[in-house]
Amino acid sequence: MPGKIVPLALSTLVLMSVGNTVADDGDRAAILALMDKAFYAVGSDDPDDMRAIQLAEGTSISFRQHPDGESGELLMRMSTNEALLADTTEDKLVERWTGDPTVMIRGPIAVVWGEYEFMINGYFSHCGVDSIDLVKVDGDWKIANWMWTVEKKGCPTDPSAVTEQR
Prior knowledge:
- By secondary structure, the chain is an alpha+beta fold.
- The chain has a single domain, classed as Nuclear Transport Factor 2, Chain: A.
- The protein is built from three helices and seven strands; from the N terminus they run ααββαβββββ.
- It has helices at 2-42, 48-51, 81-84, and strands at 54-65, 74-80, 93-97, 102-106, 109-120, 123-137, 140-150.
- The termini are far apart.
């Protein structure tokens, strides 16, 4: 009898891990589709596009080099997701991944981490890294927290090759 329990237990573990992988693939696709919506919403004139995919109580945090450029000091800007939507602009904004983002999922929480570049009115502005915390609420993934860096050096799009920068 004990000799039969070990193979049965191993088979059960293998089947459980296969089931989790399939579920994660579906969730990964849903999360990446949500990030496509988020990047669209960044450039949208309608703040409701972003409201539909994030938690108002979440946070948005950015880090950028101090304007003097010499001190090495980073400036942090933090607000609630809802408060950030009050910052409106007439500029045309475009954000896009510069590679494949990493997606980690466990149950109802996930993290997306990846490098991006940002364009304003068709011109290169900056690059950086996005780190986005997501939660599954009522079966749908939502952005809880969004953090990013704002960088001008080491970008996949070489800022010196761009005619105009912002």
